[in-house]
Amino acid sequence: MSLLVRRTAALAVTVIAALVVLSARADADPPSTQLNVADLTLLNGVRQAGLWEIPAGQMAAQKGSTPRVRQVGQMIADQHVQLDQLTVDAANQLGATLPATPTAQQQGFLTQLQAAKGIQFDQMFVTFLRGTHGFIFPVISAVRAATHNEIVRKLAAQASIFVMHHMQMLESTGLVQYAKLPPAAMSAEQDLYANGTAQAGVGAGPPISPTLVWLLAGGAAGIIGIAAVRVLWRGRAAPDPRAGAVQG
């Protein structure tokens, strides 16, 4: 391959690569640093969950009447320590202030657990925690799906793994009363697909003109074509060195 063709091909590759980069930049939605109500609800909710579920799990590890309840209590307490640290780290990055105490309802749960014993404690522990985990789980999923903030999105993804694992552990005790669980907090009239379609283009950057893309691509192809024709023309015009040779 001639030097001209190699240089032209390299130029074409560079142009095409530039088109790809420009298209990606135009399509990318720059990350938002602002927090909305849902983002703050997630931060506060996960933080307050840890403020009462850590001591609740520690109580279960000590007061549980079965080995499985004690084991589940300890694991939930330990994992909420990890999740709480992730939440604090995220809040520090975002400059958000987190609550320092459980809600009144959560404090009431702890008061009842402190007074309960034996199988009553086991049932109360599983019922309280499975109910609250089931409540926060769809909130986490909704924020994970819709937030514009990368830090909140990451925390929501991490929290969803913890919460799902905790629900599974609580269910493994055999004490979850599924018939008494509240219904999912989702309106039957909510059209998720329509909402998703309507919001799909919000916040997108200005797209690159398709005409510009085709002009650049066509220009690169034209350069390659011209170079190829020149090489062929030169090959045909060049004299054959064997033409004047004496045949033996």
Question: How would you describe the overall organization of this protein?
Answer:
It is a single chain. 72% of the residues lie in helices and 0% in strands. The protein is an all-alpha fold and 248 residues long. It folds into two domains: 3-26 and 210-234, no CATH class; 33-181, Ferritin, core subunit, four-helix bundle (Ferritin, Up-down Bundle), CATH 1.20.1260.10. Helix 1 packs antiparallel against helix 8 (210-237), helix 4 packs antiparallel against helix 5 (118-146) and helix 5 runs antiparallel to helix 6. The two termini are 34 Å apart. The relative contact order is 0.15.
Explain the layout of strands and helices.
Elements (H helix, E strand, L loop, with lengths): L2 H25 L9 H27 L3 H28 L9 H12 L2 H29 L3 H22 L20 H8 L10 H28 L11
Helix pairs in contact: 1-8, 2-3, 2-4, 2-5, 3-6, 4-5, 5-6
